[in-house]
Amino acid sequence: MQPHKDQEASLHRARSVGALVVLLLGAPGAGKGTQAKRLAAHLGLPHISTGDLFRENLSRSTPLGLRAKGYMERGELVPDGLVIEMLESRVSAADCRGGYLLDGFPRTLPQAQALAKSLEAAGLSAGVPPRLAVIDIEVPDGLIVRRASGRLVCAACGHIQHKEFDPPKQAGRCDRCGGALQSRADDQPEVVTKRLEVYHRQTAPLVQHYRAAGLLDAIDGQGNPGQVFDRLLQTLHNRGVQGGRA
Ligand code: AP5
Ligand code: MG
Questions:
Q1: Ligand 1 pocket residue status of 65, Cβ below 6 Å
Q2: What DSSP string describes 80-112?
Q3: Which ligand has an atom closest to residue 107 CA?
Q4: What is the pLDDT of residues 101-137, one digit of tens each?
């Protein structure tokens, strides 16, 4: 579909059924990115990963990317002010009027509060409040470290593979486009351990926050990606969200 057609479809949805906003929560390496790519395509929503946005900024050496760099390298969270500003700018784009899928945001209570305000404002301007569905992908810490430390990402198309769980057919080359597969700079074991500790301290409390609001379902993130995706779809289906959504 042409970009302007996507935007028209997105606006039409927002005005008729209300926007749909899906959040994927889960520890680093839980499979948020792997599932988000499939789910966004299935639901016809833009996929927004704050980690990917920072990495794109970093690869272009923008002021935002350079400010985020040290935090990401140390496995710490980028300060809320920077993340919220970047996210608000992205979701105000026309393709997000019908909703969007968030991967890696929010990660703190102030980020969740900023998102709630932004959704309230979007609902007032569209005349229909957006629907929010939150899915927590649960994976035990031991498996997280194996998943993150074996991750390979295509430098050309962003496709995600794994040295052990989804090995490339040709060494070092993406199965999808043939581009170069790379490890992520923050996937060294000591940085993964730090990211996991930060997750438990700063992000895991959001699970209780959204559960108390009646918005959250948890799914088992173990098994192969297809099995996890089936659980995701079933969970959304139980909440009345269908593929194509309309
Ligand atoms: P971000 O890029 O969001 O990293 P993360 O949360 O640490 O999550 P990952 O991308 O590492 O894991 P994932 O859950 O997407 O797993 P994936 O699908 O790739 O953030 C990076 C940094 O940016 C942060 O540390 C922070 O500094 C900053 N940042 C970003 N957002 C921020 C925010 N909101 N606030 C503050 N700072 C922020 O899968 C991992 C591997 O496992 C892959 O190799 C995959 O092939 C494999 N795999 C996936 N599913 C399966 C399966 N079912 N079976 C077998 N293997 C699988
Ligand atoms: Mg990711």
A1: no
A2: HHHHHHHHHHHHTSGGGTTEEEEES---SHHHH
A3: 1
A4: 999 999 999 999 999 999 999 888 888 889 999 999 9
